[in-house]
Design goal:
There is one protein chain. The chain folds into 2 domains: about 180 residues, Cobalamin-binding domain (Rossmann fold), CATH 3.40.50; about 240 residues, TIM Barrel. The protein has 16 helices and 19 strands. Bound molecules: cobalamin. The site of cobalamin (B12) has 41 residues, from helix 2, strand 10, helix 5, helix 7 and strand 16.
């Protein structure tokens, strides 16, 4: 087939109009390694990149993938997750005084270079990105790809590229996807690009109807949109046709909205077609939707890991969280989950800590409330995200975050930069949440 592919003029924007015409091109996708203090596999897959590769393949292009995290997996963990090889590395300047170890999770630059060298030469390379403060792995992947394939154009996309377009312009990529990808129908990751995936990922909607002050969902996807169920079923069927898949994680921001017409029929379909499939919602569920019927449905359908988005029981945190959960909603949700068959340990509940202006005493009170009602508190440390209302507050307290995405790191921001929590303060909250105090 004759190769047809070209990049748009300019270095940033939306590559979609160009992509629609591509034929016969060989496209290599790279999911970079992660540099961070800690990283756990919460069914982590680069869904956006995988969906894009599927789209290009169906348009008559050849696609392949190097996932630096998946390729460095060492041993299986529960529910289809993996431990990934890590190596201690020197901390970058902004972290120099932080008394914690810093690691690379995933393939080293040298190992990536070796893998790339063993593959056929691509016509174009697509690099994805996730957290803004993980850009080091992105830059390293681009540099390595350039060293192995000096004349091949590199395109960068993903969450970091969208949230920090000016910073991402310095990545060395030829084109940076800074706008929403208009060509892509939602979801449908090409999970078959993995040799033996143990988990799949479903995205049944994009965006979120809430307006929480710390969250970038609205900036990334201005409209909330649920996929037609027949598309979700087709996506599920494609992933379930891979014989190694035992687990499925949902990445939705608002899975339970409109549940009578969306979530419940999906659950019915899963129960009929895929009994025994284990399901997980690492992204929190809206507490207000969790009544008896919903909790029974979750339990019967096979949801094993459920996380609840409580965020906080005080007025300050509640306001920042769109007032989406009251204490009485939460109490009802816990009671319904217990009645449905879940144990106390399964009711993991996110509580936000380290918001600019948040009082640590309120976080403490939220933890106490969750414990007293029978849930299991799980601290989620705040990460300031450009373009969100709370980012502006964070910027006033710590002006340096505007030039350095490393300072968005949730592990760092809450205890070293937020000025509302100290390392000791955070540790004592963690102890309290874990019942060690
Ligand atoms: C699912 C999810 C998770 C999952 C796993 C994510 C993963 N893959 O590892 C879990 C639950 C583990 C998670 C955890 C956290 N998350 Co999270 N997460 C998300 C969420 C909801 C969806 C991301 C996603 O997969 N989207 C779906 C795909 C389709 O989108 P995409 O990959 O961006 O791709 C699109 C485009 O960018 C493009 N594209 C992608 N790649 C490429 C490549 C090329 C070349 C091109 C052209 C285009 C392109 O195509 C796609 C379609 O348009 C986002 C919010 C959101 N709505 O995006 C937050 C989000 C990314 N998370 C966020 C945060 C804060 C966190 C936590 C820190 C929360 C906490 N306090 O604990 C943790 C930290 C995680 C860690 N250390 O591992 C922030 C970002 C923070 C930051 N500074 O970057 C977000 C934006 C939510 C928010 N609060 O605003 N998260």
């Amino acid at each position: 087939m004759k190769k047809v592919f070209s990049l748009p003029d300019g270095h940033t924007g939306d590559i979609s109009p160009a992509l629609r015409n591509w034929r016969g091109a060989r496209v290599l996708g790279i999911n970079p390694s992660v540099y961070d203090f800690a990283w756990f596999d919460l069914w982590s897959k680069p869904v956006g990149l995988l969906a894009l590769l599927r789209f290009l393949r169906s348009g008559g292009n050849e696609v392949y993938l190097v996932d630096c995290l998946y390729e460095a997996r060492t041993e299986p963990l529960t529910f289809g997750r993996w431990r990934v090889e890590r190596e201690r590395v020197e901390k970058p300047g902004p972290y120099r005084n932080i008394p914690r170890r810093y690691y690379r999770f995933g393939l080293s630059g040298a190992a990536l270079r070796e893998r790339l060298g063993a593959r056929p030469g691509p016509d174009v390379i697509f690099v994805t990105s996730a957290m803004t403060y993980w850009y080091r792995g992105v830059f390293e992947a681009i540099e390595t790809a350039r060293a192995v394939f000096p004349d091949v154009p590199v395109v960068l996309g993903g969450t970091y590229a969208r949230l920090c377009p000016e910073h991402a312009a310095r990545s060395g990529a030829d084109f940076v996807q800074t706008r929403p990808l208009s060509c892509l129908p939602l979801g449908s990751p090409a999970m078959d690009l993995y040799d033996a995936p143990s988990c799949g990922v479903l995205l049944t909607s994009r965006g979120c109807p809430m307006r929480c002050d710390y969250c970038a969902a609205r900036r990334l996807w201005p409209e909330f949109e649920q996929r037609p169920l027949r598309d979700v079923f087709a996506d599920l069927s494609a992933q379930m046709s891979l014989p190694t898949v035992t687990d499925m994680a949902f990445y939705d921001d608002a899975l339970l909205i409109n549940r009578e017409r969306h979530f419940y029929p999906l659950c019915r379909h899963i129960r009929e077609r895929y009994p025994g499939l284990r399901l997980h919602t690492p992204n929190g569920l809206h507490v207000a939707q969790l009544d008896d019927e919903c909790c029974r449905t979750l339990f019967r359908t096979g949801f094993r890991t459920i996380r609840l988005s409580l965020e906080g029981t005080d007025d300050f945190t509640g306001r920042a969280s769109s007032g989406k959960a009251t204490v009485s909603d939460y109490a009802r949700a816990v009671a319904s989950l217990l009645r449905a068959g879940y144990g106390h340990d399964a009711i993991e509940t996110y509580i936000l800590a380290g918001l600019p202006g948040q009082d640590a005493a309120n976080v403490r009170a939220s933890i106490d409330t969750v414990r007293s009602l029978g849930g299991r508190p799980k601290l989620a440390e705040f990460s300031p995200i450009p373009g969100t209302p709370l980012y502006e507050d964070a910027l006033r307290l710590t002006p340096g975050i505007s030039d350095e995405p490393l300072l968005h790191n949730n592990t760092i921001y809450a205890q070293y930069a937020s000025k509302t929590l100290s390392p000791d303060g955070l540790q004592s909250l963690k102890d309290l949440a874990a019942g060690r105090e």
